[in-house]
């Protein structure tokens, strides 16, 4: 008895998808993750602010990124690498000796719900802050950053 028409294309489609998934693993971008050395941190207003920032921000905004297993599997690895590179470029809590483009925007981004990014939260439940923790982080970032965008203290 011949296969129904609907099923005839299913096997080649599945095999093609598996071949494509295997083939994209050969694309090197996003698999050789590095964490450059920490060269300087902000003058945190309190250990609590640093702890909250570490939970909610450090994976993308520091050189202390934790690279989970799925960050080594394309195409997810490409997205994780791109987001981490972009996060570090905008604000890097581990390179405070360099100018930080968006340091003065950090508290605002948390306040407005832009950070942490929604796509980050399902795989990082520790980054989900309670309302009280979110408020403490916002106040701590404002106190730590002092409204500055350079990452350098004004009295330096």
Explain this structure to me?
It is built from seven helices and no strands. With 156 residues, it is mainly α. The radius of gyration is 21 Å and the shape is elongated. It has one domain. Residues 148-156 have low confidence and may be disordered. The chain has helices spanning 5-8, 10-23, 47-56, 58-61, 76-90, 106-111, 131-145.
Based on CA atoms alone, the radius of gyration comes out at 21 Å
Query: Beta-sheet strand percentage?
Result: under 5%
Topology order in helix (H) and strand (E) letters: HHHHHHH
* Estimated helix fraction: 40-55%
What's the β-strand tally?
0
Count of discrete domains: 1
Poorly predicted spans: 148-156
Largest sheet: none
Query: Averaged pLDDT, please?
Result: 85
Give the number of helices. Answer: 7
Shape: elongated
Distance from N terminus to C terminus (CA atoms, Å) equals 83 Å
Category from helices, strands and their pairing = mainly alpha
Main attributes?
mainly alpha, elongated, disordered C terminus
């Amino acid at each position: 008895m011949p296969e129904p028409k609907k099923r005839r294309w299913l096997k080649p489609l599945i095999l093609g998808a598996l071949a494509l998934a295997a083939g994209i693993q050969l694309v090197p971008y996003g698999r050789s993750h590095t964490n450059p050395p920490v060269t300087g941190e902000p003058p945190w207003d309190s250990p609590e602010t640093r702890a909250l920032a570490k939970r909610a921000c450090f994976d993308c905004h520091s050189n202390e990124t934790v690279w989970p297993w799925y960050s080594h599997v394309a195409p997810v690895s490409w997205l994780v690498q791109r987001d981490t590179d972009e996060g570090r470029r905008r604000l890097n809590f581990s390179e405070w000796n360099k100018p930080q483009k968006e340091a003065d925007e950090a508290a605002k981004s948390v306040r407005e719900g832009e950070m942490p990014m929604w796509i980050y939260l399902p795989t990082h439940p520790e980054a989900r802050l309670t309302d009280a923790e979110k408020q403490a982080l916002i106040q701590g970032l404002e106190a730590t950053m002092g409204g500055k965008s350079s990452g350098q203290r004004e009295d330096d």
